[in-house]
Amino acid sequence: MFRNKREFKAEFHRRLVEAYGCEMEQTSPAEKYLTLGTMVRDYASNYWKDTKNETASQDLKQVYYFSMEFLLGRMLTSNLKNLGIYDIVTEGLQELGISYQEIADQENDPGLGNGGLGRLAACFMDSAASENYVVNGNCIRYRAGLFRQFINKYGEQVEMPDMWMRIGNPWEIRKLKHAVDVKFYGQIEVSYDENGDMHFRHRHASHVLAVPYDMPMIGAHTKTVNTLRLWSAEPADVAPRDRDYRQYLSDVEAICLNVYPDDSTEEGKYLRLKQEYFFVCAGVHSIVETHLKNHPSLDNLGEKVAIQLNDTHPVLVIPELMRVLMDEYGYAWDKAWQIVKETVSYTNHTVMAEALEKWPMQYIENLLPRIAMIISEIDRRYCAWAWQQCPDDPDLVSRTRPLRDGTLHMAALALIGSHAVNGVAGIHTEILKNDLFRDQVRLYPHLIQNKTNGVTPRRWLMYCNPELRKLLDDTIGTAWEKDYHHFEDLLKHVDDPSVQEAFLDVKQVRKEKLAAYVRDLTGEIIDPSSMIDTQAKRLHAYKRQLLNIMQVIYLYQRMKRDPSFRIAPHTYLFAAKAASSYTFAKSVIKLINCVAAKINNDPDTRDVLKVVFLPNYCVTMAETLVPGSDVSEQISTAGKEASGTGNMKFMMNGAITLGTLDGANVEIDSLVGRDNDVIFGHTVEELNTLQYHYNAYDYYQQDGRIHDVLDTLINGFWNGSADEFRMIYDELITRNDTYFVLADFDAYVKAQEEIARRYASRNTWARSCLVNIARSGYFSSDRTIEEYAHDIWDLQKLHF
Ligand code: 7GP
């Protein structure tokens, strides 16, 4: 382990030559990246070992965070900075004549996820390690990440494979010794012993070997290094039964081939269910194995282990742990159920009906016969119990049981098998209690609680925005870097004109960086002194990118019509991937690109109005996009965005939220006040009433602006084809505008005018940005993790 720059240089040089058998100068940037990554991983290995040993010797409880997604982003800079060796390494490389940035740019984002839920998991890993909590991640080692997005010459999204491990992954270590045998298909043979106890044997199963790859999750300025375990499916050393050999190989291969490119609709594919059981079964097995190394039995599993289910994707943990406890360790049902409930808790991330997982029981019976038996028994016992609880409402049982009409409702199973359930923002949790899970609240009044999301201030401020970090350090010292409460120390300085000026300077530098990035990526030139207004998130109807682009069209039409009407220079940036099967979302992407092509090339308006769609939104892009933005668009239909976390990142970097009262926007608003954000649109309560008499066509008829904007969707204005955007028009008019875009249009136009007005007064604007930064400490995921540890996991910190 190197201790200084001299030792680093010598070791880096030696390792490169040894690994590649040529002079250092002849190695490629990718080879240098792999060598450096391996060195950093090895550097952390002693801490990694100590963390495992100390956890065992302190007999500490540990958490396993089960998630189908971890959107980690690049690890190199974050690991170097968290370990405190960034300066040694970058200066050492410079002395060797090597560009650090060139090496860092070799790393591909591990795209092991879709969006919010996956990125949240990654922020949690950073915060847990940094706060000395032992929290292990459990996921799948997808060979292809979420697709890479290209935009073709028609403005359409094209998906390309994301082979993120093509050059290798220096962070992972293969742990063959911990491989697990996972069984699919086959039949269950039931027998009775002399005591009359039942025994279950899984016969004619198809075996898959789950091989773990461990990645270190390195805390900031602490010795805690946790583990993210990624499972990879390999053919087992067991002859496949009754099945074609080549088919078997390709079936196994398919399990870890790719991330399901969908974060909103459940495609109901068999393969997805296979993925879910695969990493659940392997993960549960390794938990049990680890526990039994240090404890005589599983009796105290719930005292020493907490399993967090990141949405319902890993909910099969509940029947799988029952299976292991009963079939492999001889527990009776009641005792096993008690252990499961003590151990498991569940986080809900959406109220969108189409994203609530449901599986035909037949699939489960076929693929996982023993699990199906256990689920049926859970359902049967639940019905008997719930019936007794609420005899006045016999229907309650059928509304809440996991099995309804041959379909398994995953959320219902999660609620029954967990000791705690949480929403991810205040308003979201209220909707869970009063709406989605209202029935369950009758049966379990204290089950549901709130844990407002957070983001790691290291990646999302200190590392991605060193200019702002320096300003904060110079103004309030460095206490805020270790303790999010100290963000508020900035409040004392928000009225200081010199701090305001310094902030505007930082923002300008970041806007210029962003402009250079946009130019390199798209060839578009944006004006770094214009107001940069960004909407970056998955493309979904409820997030209403459509409302944003409609407002842009309105401004364009108005300026074309009235030469005396001009807006202050305004740049609208969009970044969004659409699920590959989501036609409407793809159509919105095409619309944005067609609008951009026309407007950006119009000499009448292009000096003041610019629209750019940035292809392939990912964590790495956000690290430049967020610090360079002035305005944060958070304009979902009230009640639909569970929380949002992009809103928190923009706020932390001094952008002003332009948003609806939805998700965590509500909390942002109450922290900063209406002087420091712009809130518009119908509230949840208003929409709850409006839905009964809403007529989108009236808005079209009565508001000339809406009429003119919508007509461009069906008259070929954008690309010559009248039918191109008919689907969007139909959604708004024929299908009566599911997400109330037209209902909020007028308020949104006014909100846009308001934000432009505020932007014009530079010092008040800067003051607002500073208030936002000062209040953003609450949205540190260090705070969120503390709350999970205290309220859900009952978790103590590791003491070194
Ligand atoms: C997202 C929510 O849409 C977002 O509002 C929230 O901030 C984020 O989770 C983290 O809690 N949901 C997903 O990413 C998702 O896949 C379907 O939801 C299960």
From TrEMBL:
Q: Name one GO biological process term.
A: glycogen catabolic process
The record, for Pfam families, names: Phosphorylase
Cofactor entry: pyridoxal 5'-phosphate
Keyword hit for Chaperone: no
UniProt keyword Ligase, yes or no? no
Catalytic activity, reaction form = [(1->4)-alpha-D-glucosyl](n) + phosphate = [(1->4)-alpha-D-glucosyl](n-1) + alpha-D-glucose 1-phosphate
> What domain of life does the native source organism fall in?
Bacteria
This enzyme's EC code(s)? 2.4.1.1
Q: Where in the cell is it found?
A: Cytoplasm
One annotated GO molecular function: pyridoxal phosphate binding
As for what it does, the entry says:
Phosphorylase is an important allosteric enzyme in carbohydrate metabolism. Enzymes from different sources differ in their regulatory mechanisms and in their natural substrates. However, all known phosphorylases share catalytic and structural properties.
The family this protein is said to belong to = Belongs to the glycogen phosphorylase family.
Mind telling me what this protein is named?
Alpha-1,4 glucan phosphorylase
Question: Which species?
Answer: Grylomicrobium aquisgranensis
